[in-house]
Design brief:
six-stranded mixed sheet
C-alpha cells in the first residue's frame, strides 16, 4: 500500500440520536492520507454533529472511530488531538487577549508537551520556527504581535487555522472555513489547503460549492443523519436525488 492509500481516519456504523431525532444513522466513512474531502448537505443534515463525534466532543450511542489503526471511540478530544486529529470551528476558537504568536505557540506546545496555559516557558528556536512558518503559511505573519481579539473575523479564522496546522496533524477537520470571508480571502484559503495537503488529510464542511469544486478530491453528502452519496462533484451534480434534497437551497 502506498502512503497515499493509507486510511488515516475512519468510522464504522456511527450512530447517535437525541430522543427520536437520529443525527447519525450508521455512518461508514474513511479518508486517506493527503486527501481533501468535502462534506456537504442541506441545513440540519448533521454535518457539524458528525464533526463533533469525530473529534470527541460528542459521545456515540454505538459505532467506532479510528485514527489510522487506533480505536479512539472512547478517547476525549485532547487525546485524539495528540494522535493527530485537529479541528477548526465555524466561530474561531482563539484566546482573544493573547497575541497571535502566543495563540499559535500555545497550540504547538499543547501537542508536544503537558503544560499549564499559565506556564511561562522560554520560547525554543524550533518552537519559534514552527510558529513563524504556520503564520507565514496562513498569511498572517504581519499580525504576530497583535492581540488576536483585535483582528477581523477572517483574520481570526486564519489564526485558528495556523493553530491547527502548527500541530502537524494527520487529519485537519475544518468546519466552514470560508464563512464570512471575501472572495479574495476564500481564494487564499483554497490555495492554503492545496499547499498543506501535502502534509495531512483535510476534511471540510462547506456550503460554497465553487470553493468545493476547486479543492475537493471527493465529496460526501449527508442527509438526515445518513451518508447518502460519495463521489466527485461531477458525479454528484447531475444526481436527481442530490438535486431533490437541496430543493434549490444550494446549487451544485
Amino acid at each position: 500500500m502506498s502512503n497515499n492509500d493509507r486510511v488515516v481516519l475512519s468510522t464504522h456504523d456511527l450512530r447517535k440520536a437525541f430522543g427520536g431525532l437520529v443525527v447519525a444513522n450508521g455512518i461508514n466513512f474513511s479518508v486517506k492520507h493527503h486527501e481533501v474531502r468535502c462534506i456537504i448537505g442541506p441545513n440540519g443534515a448533521g454535518k457539524t454533529t458528525f464533526f463533533n463525534m469525530l473529534s470527541g466532543l460528542l459521545p456515540l450511542d454505538s459505532g467506532e472511530v479510528r485514527i489510522e489503526d487506533v480505536n479512539v471511540t472512547h478517547m476525549p478530544a485532547y487525546r485524539r488531538q495528540k494522535l493527530g486529529l485537529n479541528r477548526t470551528f465555524q466561530a474561531p476558537h482563539i484566546f482573544p487577549e493573547m497575541s497571535v504568536f502566543e495563540n499559535v505557540l500555545l497550540a504547538y506546545r499543547s501537542r508536544f508537551r503537558e503544560t499549564s496555559l499559565l506556564t511561562k516557558l522560554k520560547v525554543k528556536l524550533e518552537e519559534k520556527d514552527a510558529v513563524e512558518q504556520a503564520l507565514l503559511n496562513t498569511h498572517i505573519q504581519q499580525y504576530s504581535g497583535r492581540e488576536a481579539g483585535s483582528l477581523s473575523h477572517g483574520e481570526k479564522k486564519r489564526v485558528e487555522m495556523a493553530m491547527g496546522i502548527v500541530q502537524r496533524p494527520k487529519v485537519l477537520l475544518m468546519d466552514e472555513p470560508t464563512a464570512g470571508m471575501t472572495v479574495r480571502e476564500t481564494q487564499e484559503i483554497a490555495e492554503l489547503i492545496k499547499e498543506i495537503r501535502k502534509d495531512m488529510a483535510i476534511v471540510i464542511v462547506e456550503h460554497d460549492m465553487e470553493f468545493v469544486r476547486e479543492i475537493a478530491d471527493k465529496i460526501t453528502v449527508l442527509y438526515r443523519g445518513d451518508l447518502v452519496r460519495e463521489g466527485s462533484l461531477e458525479e454528484l451534480e447531475n444526481d436527481s436525488f442530490i438535486q431533490e434534497i437541496y430543493l434549490g437551497s444550494v446549487e451544485i
